[in-house]
């Protein structure tokens, strides 16, 4: 059984026991969250919502917060002596999927 959820403009395919990094939610470790933005659920047959599946929710437990590796963007325009360098580190909340209810 799996579900496709939406969080922070991104979509994730999750199963029970999966660990994933969602956008930062400022929750303490050990808290539980319910994600109601479920786009599709597959429990033998695929149930697709319009846009969300009615009555479906995914329960997750917060494992902690952190920051991803730095992503560097570097733009250089040849023969112009023009360049820009920027770094970005995404803040995330690490969660473990505990239950998928269709």
Secondary structure elements and their pairing?
Layout: E1 2-7, E2 10-14, E3 19-23, E4 32-35, E5 38-42, E6 46-48, E7 57-67, E8 71-77, E9 82-88, E10 91-101
Antiparallel strand pairs: 1-2, 1-5, 3-10, 4-7, 5-6, 7-10, 8-9
Structural description of this entry:
By secondary structure, the chain is an all-beta fold. The protein has one domain (2-101). It is 0% helix and 63% strand. It has no helices and ten strands. The strands form three sheets. Strands 2-1-5-6 form a four-stranded antiparallel beta sheet, with no helix packed on it. A four-stranded antiparallel beta sheet has the order 3-10-7-4, with no helix packed on it. The chain has a two-stranded antiparallel ribbon with strand order 8-9. The chain is elongated and about 60 Å long.
Short description:
The protein is mainly beta and 102 residues long. The chain has strands at 2-7, 10-14, 19-23, 32-35, 38-42, 46-48, 57-67, 71-77, 82-88, 91-101. The model has no long low-confidence stretch (mean pLDDT 95).
Termini separation comes to 10 Å
Largest sheet: 4 strands, antiparallel
Number of strands: 10
CA-atom Rg in angstroms? 18 Å
Assign a percent range to the helix content: under 10%
Proportion of residues in β-strands:
over 45%
Structural class: mainly beta
Question: Notable features of this structure?
Answer:
single chain; 102 residues; mainly beta; four-stranded antiparallel β-sheet
